[in-house]
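Is this the right way to post structure tokens for a design question? Let me know if I should format differently. Anyway, here goes:
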């Protein structure tokens, strides 16, 4: 894939951390002090409510959004704009094995940030991260293309899609600039807020999928959201920050998707790779954001 780099925004130092598992009702395990390479634990919602698999879930698609688009048929809508991104499952060398599955598990989701640009990449293996090259978390390299998948990045959390059954359970996404409490986060799908934790918001969509949002400004979240509230696809639900319990993480949104997955005749409700769905959702966002860098 294209690897040309477009430089983005600017510079101050932030603390490196990483996200992990989710079991509603499980005790929180944030680190006791600001980490240089912290591992994020579970965040219990105020109301422990997990969705069951829907009777007729919206079918995922296995189309790879990173593949070149076919020429549209006469009279067909124009192709979605492309942008510079590594393919699903390709992780930076030494950061993990990646997920071979390239299913678009949430084909109609809204990109979780209100506006482009946004930068999907690792906040642990990127510049300034505990396992990345030297620099600060606000290094321009972290605010540039290409996008990089970091689902299944090396972690100790259970993840059936990863080669050894363990890994990062979501995708890290940086907002347009390295500024907290400024960039708006929106609902990926229409649904209900089913949990609000110390640094996590749970959105159970009508499709049956569960979306977990981590690290928003939780004070602002609690001013505008409550458990049981109905939200529409694209509705603002918070702003990107670095909330992580009593400590701070980097300024980014960590997004997870859980969905029913059937293997060997058994269906489980589990973490699924969000990157292919995010690529498609971002292409749709770029189609109405002509001035956003590609």
């Amino acid at each position: 894939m294209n690897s040309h780099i477009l430089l983005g925004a600017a510079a101050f130092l932030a603390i490196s951390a990483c996200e992990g598992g989710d079991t509603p009702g499980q005790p929180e395990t944030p680190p006791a002090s600001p980490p240089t390479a912290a591992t994020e634990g579970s965040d219990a919602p105020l109301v422990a409510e997990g969705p069951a698999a829907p009777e007729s879930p919206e079918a995922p698609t296995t189309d790879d959004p990173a593949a070149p688009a076919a020429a549209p048929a006469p009279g067909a809508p124009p192709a979605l704009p492309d942008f510079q991104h590594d393919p699903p499952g390709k992780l930076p060398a030494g950061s993990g094995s990646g997920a071979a599955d390239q299913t678009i598990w949430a084909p109609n989701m809204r990109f979780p940030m209100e506006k482009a640009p946004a930068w999907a990449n690792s906040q642990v293996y990127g510049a300034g991260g505990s396992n990345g090259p030297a620099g600060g978390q606000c290094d321009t390299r972290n605010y540039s293309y290409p996008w990089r998948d970091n689902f299944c990045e090396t972690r100790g959390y259970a993840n059936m899609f990863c080669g050894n059954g363990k890994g990062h359970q979501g995708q890290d996404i940086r907002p347009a600039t390295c500024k907290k409490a400024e960039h708006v986060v929106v609902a990926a799908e229409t649904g209900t807020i089913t949990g609000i934790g110390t640094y996590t918001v749970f959105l159970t969509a009508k499709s049956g999928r569960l979306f977990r949002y981590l690290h928003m400004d939780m004070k602002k979240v609690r001013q505008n959201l409550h458990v049981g509230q109905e939200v529409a696809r694209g509705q603002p639900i918070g702003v990107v920050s670095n909330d992580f319990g009593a400590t701070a993480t980097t300024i980014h949104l960590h997004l997870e998707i859980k969905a029913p997955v059937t293997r060997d005749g058994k269906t489980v409700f589990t973490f699924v790779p969000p990157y292919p769905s995010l690529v498609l959702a971002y292409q749709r966002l770029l189609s109405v954001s002509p001035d956003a860098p590609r």
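Format looks fine. Someone answered above. Worth noting: Helices lie at 218-224, 275-287. Residues 8-21+46-63+90-288 form a domain with the Glucose Permease (Domain IIA) fold (CATH 2.70.70.10).
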